[in-house]
Each structure stands twice: as structure tokens, then as C-alpha cells.
Amino acid sequence: MRILVVSQYFWPESFRINDLVVELVARGHEVTVLTGQPNYPSGTLDAAFARQPEDFDRYGGADVVRVPHVLRGGRGVQLMLNYLTFALSASVIGAFKLRGRPFDAVFAFEPSPITIGIPAIVLKWIKRAPMALWVLDLWPQTLQAVGAVRSPLVLGSVDSLVRMIYRHCDAILAQSRSFIRTIQSQVRERDHAKIIYFPSWAEPAEQVDSVQPAAEIASRPDLFTVLFTGNVGEAQGFEAVLAAAVLLRDKPVRWVIIGDGRRSDWLRSEVIRLGLSAQVMMLGRFPLERMSSFMAHADALLVCLRDEPVFALTIPGKVQSYLMAGRPVLAMLNGEGANVVAESGAGIAVAAGDALGLSNAITQMLTATETERAVMGRAGLAYSEANFDRSTLISQLEHILSNLAYTAIAPANF
Fold this sequence. Notes:
Number of strands: 14
Strand content: 15-25%
Number of domains: 2
Structural class: alpha/beta
Largest sheet: 8 strands, mixed
CATH architecture of the largest domain: 3-Layer(aba) Sandwich
CATH topology of the largest domain: Rossmann fold
Strand order of the largest sheet: 3-4-2-1-5-6-7-8
Number of helices: 15
Shape: globular
């Protein structure tokens, strides 16, 4: 198939869409990616891209077509401009750059913002190709949960936009089963059949037990290491994580944070203010392929989200990666993500925002034997292989796109 992937984020930014594109090419598909200029999560243009942008025109055998837009920056207004200008640029400049290229299907990757659906729909119309949207973040619910938007008028307008986008999708892929109910409430009943459960998978990586532990972290077998990887933003609820760190100040526990985001500076200042510099290490962002080396230091892997109804509906993408790492998981979140951790036997789940519960869970793991923790790790790995197998899920996506293409009008040669 000739597949057009529309994603605001792409390599060298670290997102699951990178892995998907490489695998689709490996399976014999002709893949083109329409994306922006890499600036996530720092808000500034990636330095290597700025020096040699032409080096980023191909990735894993796929063509990469980039369009200009306002960078994320460090303020909310600029972030909104980033979303809107990419949607406009991808719809107009992207369509121009893709002229003459036929496609059998359009696949839109939506970890946020939902505005990615706009250029995907425009290109669906121009190319006369069916379009599937992978929903990894619910709008406008997430905007309200993180406090980005409080105006009922604006939230209502965003909800209307979301309903319009969903209406024009040929398939809506929901990353959790709980998402399905919410999406159903935003579409017509006759469109319920096009909503499909399609979870994330763990990106391929070296097995944690077979890699050399990251040199950036000192080996401290006398300490229990809790590792967090990923975005440091509003949604993660680090206030409760720090409160748990304070409660465990006198325990042999260290916290290692690998990642970056809009709240990184706040988190660093809070670590200093609370006198936790000896317990909390913030090492910043590293390439995805380095994650296994950092996880090799971990006695437990932490996933956390704020106590908001919308976050109870999601399975954070790092859950699948954590399960595949074969390390115990500490989950401070509600709903479907917590259910996965509990059901799998991979670790301990406590309520979102429950600092005391998290500190008690860490104490419980700290006093467990290595054998008991290894059992948790193996249980998570087995559960991931049974429920989130990468090959099986990508084959399912191939089937979905193939069915859409088969039933659609033949693509135009615009």
C-alpha cells in the first residue's frame, strides 16, 4: 500500500510513530510522512536539524515531508499557535508538496493535539483516500484537565471541532477501551462501528538484563532505584511524586527521572526547595534507544498521572514499555492504566495523587526479595506479550488500512 502518515511529531523527536513507520516500510509498504520541524519537547528547533535539515528527509526507508510552523516555545499562547499553524501549514503547504503523489490510505497520529485531524481530512479529500485517526489523547477533556483552557466557550468550540473531525474519519482507533465510550458520545450512533480498540505497544529495544547499565547513573546496589521515563508535564502530577519522596527521605531510595517537558524547570526548583537533591536525579532527555540502559538500573519503574477523570480512561504509552522491560511497575494513576498493572501482576497500583500510597508501595517493594520482584517483572513481560504484542498490533493496523483502501474510491493522481 501507499500510506501517507500525518503526524505533527516525528523523528528526531521520540514518538511511537517512528517505530510504526519503520515497520510498515519493512513490510513492503510505500510510506510518506507529512510532519513539522522537530522542536518537542524543548520548544526550540532541534540543533542537528537546524544545521542540516536535508539529513532528515528520509527515515527508515520512508520519505519525510516537512512544513514550517510556529515553534512550541515556553508559553501557552505559543503552544496554541504551534498547533494551529501546523494544521494550516500541513493543509496548504503540505498538500502542495505532496502534489502528484497518490495514496491508498491516510493515517493520522494523534497523541495531541486533535488539530492533526484537519490536514489529514484535507489530504483525504484531495487524494481521495480513506483516513484513519489513532486517538491517543482525548480532546477537549485533556485541555480542561491540565488547566490549559478553562473557558466553557472555548471548550465547547474545541468539542465541536473534535466532533467534526471524528465525523470525517473512516476509522477511529482508540488507544484504550475506556476511550471508546467517550468517543461514542462525540459521534453519531451510526458511526460507532468505525471506532476500533487499538492500544499502543512497546517499541523494540534491547532486553534490559542484556545491556550495559547507563554510565550516567552510578551503580548503587545499596539503594532502591525508582525510575521515571518520559514527558515531565502537567498531566504527570509530580507534586504527589515529590510528596512521596519527602515521606521516604530517610529510606534508602533514590529517584531517577529521564525525560524533559514543560514542567522540568519547576520540578528542578522544587527538588532544591524541598531539600531532595540527594534523593532525586534529573538527567534530562535521551534517545529512545538508550532507555534500556537506564532501565537496567531500576528496581521499579514509575508511571503517574494526575487525578482527573480523563486520565482514568487512558493507558499511558510507557506502561507497555515498562511491562516489556521485565521490571516491577509502580503506578500512581486511576482507571484502565492502573487496572493493567494490577491485572498483570507486574507491580503495585495506587490511586492518582496518593503520595502516601506510593510511599507505602515503594516500602513494600523495598522489603520484598529479589525473587519476588523478579516474579513481578516476568508477569508484566508475559502480559505484554499476550496483550500488546507489536507484530500482532501492526498486522491489525495493516488489515484495517487495507480494508479501508479496498472499499474506497481509487486514489487520484493529484
